[in-house]
Amino acid sequence: LQPPVVHARGRALEMREQYREAIETFQALLEITPTDISLHTDIGRCQRRLGELDEAEASFERSLEAFPYSPSVHYQLALLQETRGDVEMAVQHLETALDVWANADSLYKPAARARDKLAELQ
Fold first, then answer.
1. What pLDDT, in 10s, does the model give residues 31-77?
2. Which of 70, 84, 90, 91 is most buried, judged by most C-beta within 10 A?
3. How far apart are CA 23 and CA 13, in angstroms?
4. Residue 52: is it exposed, middle or buried by C-beta count within 10 angstroms (0-12/13-18/19+)?
């Protein structure tokens, strides 16, 4: 049960905006479960919020190596590119995410956030 508990701790730290501590927690979890590539997305999300955009992009790219069509990772990359001012690239990532989520229920919050963000950027 250790990995789910450690992951929950990392998410709680992230929600409290303690991003550096959350990154450390996710990195420790990555040592316990090195094959859990999705942890790179968690790390990247915190790095993005800290303004460490190059590091965040590298973390997201590691996730995409294993999951090239992960809508969640593409959504995070869209937010990163928006922060950088590259609206065109942000739109491309959102379109990729929404292609994957094309059949998602209209109430599915991640897809709804992506649709709203795309409308905002266009």
1. 989 888 889 999 999 999 999 999 999 999 999 998 999 999 999 99
2. 90
3. 9
4. middle
